[in-house]
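RECORD TYPE: inverse folding
INPUT: structure tokens
STRUCTURE:
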């Protein structure tokens, strides 16, 4: 049986919020539920109103529409057509939006790439997605050249050079992105359905390669109903320092701002020292967080003007219980927590007290019943009673919403949606009132500072080192409330491996956020009779006296 909310007042509030969300959707109209049509509609309504604040630049709704039209037209003239996959590997900048929305306007499929990916991880996603075009920042041309000979489909390299030094030389095989922005601003007419795939966003694999989650236009557009539920209005400015290749910045900042006629203030990346100064500079009234951001901000030295900021709401997940309310008091805002997944969108929500919501700390909220149902089950998929931990399952109650589907992975799709329920792989429990609480991750992945990291990806790189016989990567608890990466390594007989050598090996072959903090050389990895590594034993041992700690050793990871 699905988890039920029994409090009559809470049910009334849920119905009220559901009504607001439904009205926001009706105001758009099902026929306009594609990214391109939404951008066009909002440009016609808002014109010269600023949509994006970035550094010292301001871009209006009209300019966003015009520039993405130009990209769409240029791509079409280059031969990109509906259904083609177009990868975007850019840092946060206005050009990211022009490319994303331009791709969407011709019915091509946007493939966001984590800018920290390197080597095999980058090669896999570009090849698996069948991308034939890539928008690439000049910053990453070296990483692209490193894998170029292994790529099977890229036919067009479009290079962003606006932020490059004057000494940068454009490669002969690249087209400058700036050239696309000079195309005529009239994109071709393409028949795009709200049910068409808008994006393939790759989540970290847990026991194998990353999975490409297919997102429909409709699901992306209606991800933007959050402001109408939280009470945000056209005067609000949503701030994000999270990367646009991440679902959070896309679906919990960009689309809500667009749908709600709001404004976006965007930073290139998170900086604790600059965070509140940027909030004040842009007069932002809401920001999103992930991972350890609240803890990091709270651990900064207190300042007399901490509460002197315009923010009303901070929206995110996994804020530690002992930080939650002190953070609110110190910075003069309300925390709004929820639970979401790339595959399933937002499935629970814990709205702010100012809406009349009966909040519980540290609950991740109650099921948003207008959109989905939630079950908590044991290993035999029997329903758990209140206060008993089990895996969280979810399913959509709105037939117009998206379904869960992995690109070119029918078997994995069937497995994760068996019985008509999406199996999250996360362990939770719920109380007698229907509030859900996160416990741990059932899947074998690591959560570090907002990034889901595949242990399989780390292991595949480390295992290629000539000295390594076998290894196991896993998470150990961090002071920031999530995980740090540890790798336990069994060497080939007679071989040696210094941790610093392993760090150098990893730096050119994986994203910096994947690189282990802890390394331990062991005589033998614990295994079952079927030769499976018993990671639970390694996790239980944690950081031992024999463990090398990168941070204590003073080893600095290069991020470029």
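DESIGNED SEQUENCE:
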């Amino acid at each position: 049986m699905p988890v039920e909310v029994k409090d009559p007042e809470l049910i009334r509030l849920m119905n009220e919020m559901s009504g607001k969300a439904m009205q926001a959707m009706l105001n758009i109209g099902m026929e306009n539920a594609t990214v391109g049509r939404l951008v066009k509609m909002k440009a016609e309504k808002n014109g010269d109103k600023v949509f994006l604040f970035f550094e010292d630049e301001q871009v209006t709704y009209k300019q966003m529409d015009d520039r993405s039209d130009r990209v769409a037209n240029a791509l079409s003239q280059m031969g990109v057509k509906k259904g083609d996959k177009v990868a975007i590997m850019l840092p946060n900048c206005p050009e990211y939006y022009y490319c994303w929305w331009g791709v969407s306007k011709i019915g091509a499929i946007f493939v966001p790439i984590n800018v920290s990916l390197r080597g095999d991880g980058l090669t896999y996603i570009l090849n698996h997605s069948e991308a034939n075009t890539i928008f690439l920042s000049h910053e990453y041309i070296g990483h692209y050249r490193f894998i170029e000979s292994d790529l099977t489909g890229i036919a067009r390299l479009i290079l962003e050079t606006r932020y490059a030094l004057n000494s940068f030389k454009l490669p002969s095989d690249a087209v400058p992105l700036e050239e696309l922005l000079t195309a005529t601003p009239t994109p071709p007419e393409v028949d795009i359905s709200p049910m068409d795939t808008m994006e393939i966003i790759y989540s970290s694999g847990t026991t194998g390669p990353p999975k490409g989650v297919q997102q429909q236009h409709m699901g992306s557009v209606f991800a933007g109903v959050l402001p109408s539920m939280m009470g945000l209005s056209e005067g609000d400015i949503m701030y994000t320092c999270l990367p646009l290749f991440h679902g959070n910045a896309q679906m919990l900042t960009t689309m809500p701002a667009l749908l709600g006629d709001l404004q976006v203030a965007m930073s290139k990346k998170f900086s604790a020292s600059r965070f509140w100064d940027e909030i004040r500079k842009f007069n932002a009234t809401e920001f999103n967080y992930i991972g350890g951001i609240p803890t990091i901000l709270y651990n900064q030295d207190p300042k007399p003007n901490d509460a002197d900021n315009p923010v009303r709401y901070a929206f995110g997940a996994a804020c530690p219980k002992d930080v939650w309310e002190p953070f609110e008091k110190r910075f003069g805002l309300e925390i709004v927590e929820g639970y979401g997944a790339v595959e399933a969108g937002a499935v629970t929500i814990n709205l702010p007290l100012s809406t009349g919501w009966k909040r519980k700390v540290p609950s991740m909220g109650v099921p948003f019943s207008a959109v989905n149902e939630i079950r908590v089950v044991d290993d035999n998929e029997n329903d758990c009673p209140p206060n008993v931990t089990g895996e969280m399952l979810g399913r959509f109650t709105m037939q117009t919403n998206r379904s869960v589907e992995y690109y070119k992975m029918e078997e994995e799709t069937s497995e994760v949606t068996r019985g008509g329920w999406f199996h999250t792989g996360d362990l939770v429990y719920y109380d007698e009132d229907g509030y859900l609480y996160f416990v741990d991750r059932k899947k074998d992945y690591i959560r570090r500072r907002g990034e889901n990291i595949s242990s399989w990806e780390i292991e595949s790189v480390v295992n290629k080192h000539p000295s390594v016989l076998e290894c196991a990567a896993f998470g150990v608890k961090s002071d920031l409330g999530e995980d740090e990466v540890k790798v336990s390594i069994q060497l080939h007989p007679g071989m040696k491996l210094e941790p610093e050598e392993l760090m150098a090996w990893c730096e050119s072959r994986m994203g910096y956020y994947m690189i282990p903090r802890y390394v331990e050389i062991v005589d033998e990895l614990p295994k079952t009779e079927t030769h499976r590594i018993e990671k639970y034993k390694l996790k239980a041992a944690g950081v031992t006296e024999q463990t090398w700690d990168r941070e204590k050793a003073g080893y600095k990871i290069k991020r470029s």
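NOTES: The longest strand covers residues 468-477.
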